[in-house]
Amino acid sequence: MEKKSIDIIKEIFGEEDAESKHTSFYEFGGWRQSRRKREYVEIARDLVKKRGVTGYQGDRDDMGVPLGQRFIEPYYISGTDILCDAEDLHQINNAAIQQMGDDIKRTAISGLDMAHRMLEVRIGATVTPETINRYLEVANHTIVGGAVAQEHMAEINPAMTRDGYVKITTGNEDLTDHIDKQYLIDINMEYPEDQADALKEGVGSSLYQVVRVPTIAVRNADGGITHRWAANQCTLAFITAYALGGGSVLADFSLTSKHMQYVTLGTPTYPRRGPRGRGEPGGIPYAYVGDFCQADAATGDPLRYFLESMALSNFLYLNLWVNGYVIGGIGGVNAGAVIFTNNVLDEFAKHVADWIIERYGGFARAKPSFDVIRDVCHEACFHVLEEYNRYPLLLEHHWGGAIRMFVLSILGGMGPSFATGHSLAGMIGYHYVGGYLMKEAWGRGSFGSQDSVDHLNLAYAASMVPDEGLLPELRGPNISSDSTNAIVMTTSASYSVAAHAARKDAWCLSPVVKVAFSDSKLPFDFKHVRAEIARGTQHEFMPEGDRDPIKPGR
Amino acid sequence: MAEKLNIYPGADRVAERRRTILDKNTKFRELREIPDEDLILLLGHRNPGERYTSVHPPLDELKEPADPIRELIEPTPGARGGDRIRYVQFTDSVYHSPVTPVFRGRMYHIRYRGVDTISYSGRELMEVRERDLELYTKELIETELFDPARTAIRGITVHGSAMRLDEDGLMFDARRRYMYDREKGLVIYTKNQMAIPIDKSIPVGSPRSDEELKSDSIIYGLDTVRCRDAEEVWEVTGKLMEANVKGGFNPGLVER
């Protein structure tokens, strides 16, 4: 292990010796040692006077466990020099985390080819670059709440919907040359040349529309509204732009434009998962994490891209889905923080990556086999456990089995995928580490029954039966058999992202989704996930979707 | 030919110790004596001398429906008496508590009857009829399975297993259920497992030395036997992983 992460941990603990097994407790001033907890106590004291009901009382020792008997360490966001408290990483306290989720939930992607064919063949309209530009102009009026077909509609204050828009993208450069640039996600502008070429080939000559419904829409409803909002408002734009009328023809066209080429980012979650509409985090396949994340466009380093993707995965599935939808209240913020703080996972991952390069001559060079899976997983797991042995301060920082399992399972998924470029090898390794290695090495699990999921998923690894499994890239929290938990949801993206990063693929699951999230007009910058979240911890991130324009005095 | 039970793979001392822990015939060394009254206070489920709370009449007084399983399985004393189900939970320090949660779970299943248990990273919960619980807990505290400094009885606020040790070598407890009496060299509990103060101090013995704990440790690592050197264990886990994947896909692919 490099020394940087150990130096960071010594710094945040204020200690010189990371190798001592002994320390002192009960002398840190309890809750007062935390800047945020001190702030919260003050805020709550004011609030109780205003609302007349007691609320937060973190200063009370008799409300359960006295807070702060051990040292409460702050966190550096990996890849940045931003230091924050754990509280800053809770999704309710961090506007960047919320916006990241909102930007995913409010994205509606649909193909326009079938709609255009309907216009030309069934209706007899002519579709040209000029009519497409005209349509986009109208759609950017309707999508933010402007009326087109009836005069007596209540319209929406554009300040409330200021971040809504409609753009298009395609790999057909003959067409993009004629599209108004304000409406174009230009693949050439967003990616390095090789990646742009691969993405253009992947997207092909088809034309895709990328709609961002206003953030306030998903904050007022949920991700399920996105498809409907986009479908209704864009169909109205078609009606206006192409002067459409009639009954049955219009019905057929509406069905086509709304639904026939719609790209579902997240399937509706089935009841046992907590039923939610489309586009919610619980229905999103893991491999889309690597398509949402654009760090590969910003850096040619597959490891950096992988780590940024893992951070995104943590915020999407742990903060927003598990903590936000499944649990509520507090939750596993500290546990997931190990994925993107204090450089620890970065250095563990680098060790495994370097080991793979030395052993196999590079990424994606080894032929997938059980021997390779065993080989890489043993190295990854034993290295991490030995570092915990070597540095008790690091082990104290990663004080729970779930915390350590976040690290180990990510490396278990990453290692075989990096070595082979094969996501199934990574997925098997992922569950091998979770099901067997930490448990037999230390005689400890993670949280209760955590490993049962890994055993189940090993048996389902190669299954394509819908009740059991899927291609690794298509798996997500929403596959059935209850074969998931918070750790599996948070870290399973590791094997798919690592496999495609190792192969230097331009995307993981969909070139269209990849391109859709490259748009630099998005409030959340998907090229720099960790830096954006770090800005959120400092209250420097400006989110969308607030109610400011309709608050008193506005 | 009678098969010999392997219990656990490996030829090193950690594996050997794991086999000892998991062998139902092992007679663990008694290192301390905890009076029954103190044990009941530590558990905190009833007062000393108080009768067991029943959730149903004694089985002998019940007319149960015919069931061949009832003929095969002898009820535990707690089940026969109709006791309610109660719990004990132990937290095991990574710094070589004599048992670890996963092996506690396996040992409980092998050694004790009528238990329900679950393994976490630092703790193991056991739920069982109350008088059986007291019987099992007595062995778990009085023998070499318990170290006063590295093992703790905690029903709530259980974390601390991977924290560094305090100045006296004790595992951290945010609820401060126990302290080290330096003069007497004893660990003293002043709260029960739910961290509710009890009106007497209960000594649970002297901590064993680091060397003793390491020599009896069932944890692979730099202090004991390196993980990488436990080759037979990883050979077995590797086989299990491969068999799981192949068997799930097509059972015919699994070697017999």
From TrEMBL, chain A:
Residue stretches making up the Methyl-coenzyme M reductase alpha subunit C-terminal domain: 320-444
Catalytic activity: coenzyme B + methyl-coenzyme M = methane + coenzyme M-coenzyme B heterodisulfide
One annotated GO biological process: methanogenesis
Enzyme Commission (EC) number: 2.8.4.1
Pathway of action: One-carbon metabolism; methyl-coenzyme M reduction; methane from methyl-coenzyme M: step 1/1
Domain named Methyl-coenzyme M reductase alpha subunit N-terminal: residues: 3-267
Keywords: Metal-binding, Methanogenesis, Methylation, Nickel, Transferase
CC cofactor: coenzyme F430
EC class name: transferase
Recorded superkingdom: Archaea
Molecular function terms from GO: coenzyme-B sulfoethylthiotransferase activity; metal ion binding
Gene3D superfamilies xref list: 3.30.70.470, Methyl-coenzyme M reductase, alpha/beta subunit, C-terminal (1.20.840.10), Methyl-coenzyme M Reductase, Chain A, domain 1 (3.90.390.10)
Subunit structure: MCR is a hexamer of two alpha, two beta, and two gamma chains, forming a dimer of heterotrimers.
Recorded family membership: Belongs to the methyl-coenzyme M reductase alpha subunit family.
Protein name: coenzyme-B sulfoethylthiotransferase
UniProtKB/TrEMBL annotation, chain B:
EC number: 2.8.4.1
Gene3D superfamilies reported in the protein's UniProt record: Methyl-coenzyme M reductase, gamma subunit
Keyword Transcription: no
Transferase found in the keyword field: yes
InterPro entries xrefs: Me_CoM_Rdtase_Fd-like_fold (IPR009024), Me_CoM_Rdtase_gsu (IPR003178), Me_CoM_Rdtase_gsu_sf (IPR036994)
Record-level GO BP terms: methanogenesis
Keyword terms: Methanogenesis, Transferase
Associated pathway: One-carbon metabolism; methyl-coenzyme M reduction; methane from methyl-coenzyme M: step 1/1
Self-association state and partner proteins as the record states: MCR is a hexamer of two alpha, two beta, and two gamma chains, forming a dimer of heterotrimers.
Recorded family membership: Belongs to the methyl-coenzyme M reductase gamma subunit family.
Protein name, entry field: coenzyme-B sulfoethylthiotransferase
Name of the coding gene: mcrG
